[in-house]
Amino acid sequence: MIRLAMSRRCWHESRTSTPRWGLPRISTRSCTATCSRRSVWCSATLRLRTSCRPGARSTGTWPAPWSGSRTTCTHGSRWTRGDVWRDLVVCERVQQSPDTVAYGLARPDGTALPKALPGQYISVQVRLADGARQIRQYSLTRAPRQEQWGITVKAVPAGTIAGVGIPAGELSNSLHQNVFEGDYLSCSLPYGDLILHDRPDPLLLVSAGIGCTPIIGMLHYLARTNSDRDITVLHADQSPGRHAHRRELSDLVEQTPSARLIHWYEDLGVRSSTGTVRRGLIDLDDIPIDPRVRAYLCGPPVFMDVVRQHLVNRHVPQAHVSYEVFGPDTWTPTAPAA
Q: Which letter does DSSP use for residue 191 in this model?
């Protein structure tokens, strides 16, 4: 059976079944991993579930999180050994698309944040209006910058899957409606296994929808380090107007002379397809792929399975393909046809 290098990122934010990139979206619930013991505190409505990650450090207590108002930071300015959470101030809020908002996060005193590796993410802990605490994970889009972290939050509407009603994402919508410049968010240290390694091999970065966020973080690192690796960036989305970080993605590729970018959009509106902006679903048939390539995938599981199968058929070794699931962490790629 084929097994790939996988970042175990677990979610319990509700997702709608509205098709994207020709594929159904997955109904999931997020949990996080932030301490060495496993604890579950969960009401009938799944207000909070914290599934802890073995080996990670813990303070052993829950600090008071952001409560929806501009309050005084509850923590000191420095992370020390054993700490997991700190209150960071929102220094920037940008509406990336109709349903996605990007936040810039910094320490209140302006000192450097802990170093994050390209591809990692943080957990954000929020107290909702009814007093319940919830935690979600968001990829860092500005690695390896230490003066400011960037995360992007997609508002998750209510929907249905196979006739079953799925509630709207409580935390994502709360952030959209309540968090602005000057507010505080309780954030964890960076973690995650989907990490871009410095190697001379060619790179293939493939994403769909909000799955572009870890790819954006990797591209920031490649641009800042003046990488000369051969880089191909492929992204699929519903339309240019709903593509979060569309301009940033293009700018980062332009800043990296050895990189090239191709988009696929289901709806191009009145625009015509070009060599680099194409109508329809992602199609790798005419994309040159070196068998030595190191591939990083992020998006819905079915989307990634299609891309992975194509790479297997193009003789890319399974050990060269890494992915992050924006959904349950139980996805096992299907074995290639004999």
A: B
User: Would you state the pLDDT for residue 81?
Assistant: 56
State residue 218 phi and psi, 5-degree precision.
-65, -40
Residues of the chain with pLDDT under 50: 1-77, 329-331, 335-338
Domain of residue 215: give its range.
Answer: 203-325
The domain tally of the chain equals 1
Residues 151 and 92: their CA atoms lie apart, in Å, by 10
Compute the distance between CA of residue 23 and CA of residue 19 in angstroms, rounded to an integer.
5
Query: Is 225 within a domain?
Result: yes
What pLDDT, in 10s, does the model give residues 199-244?
Answer: 999 999 999 999 999 999 999 999 999 999 999 999 999 999 999 9
Rounded to an integer, what distance in angstroms lies between the CA atom of residue 30 and that of residue 136?
6
The Cα 122–Cα 49 span in angstroms is 16
Which residue shows structure tokens 């505080």?
184
Tell me what pLDDT residue 49 has: 27
Does residue 15 form part of some domain? no
Closest CA to 332 of 313, 305, 309: 305
In sequence order, which residues have a C-beta less than 8 Å from that of residue 139 and are 6 or more positions away? 119, 120, 121, 151, 152, 192, 213, 214, 216, 217, 324
The answer to whether residue 240 sits within a structural domain is yes
pLDDT digits (tens, 9 = 90+) for 105-122: 999 999 999 999 999 999
Question: What does the longest C-alpha to C-alpha distance in the chain come to?
Answer: 61
Q: What is the CATH number of the domain that holds 268?
A: 3.40.50.80
Domain assignment of residue 63, yes or no: no
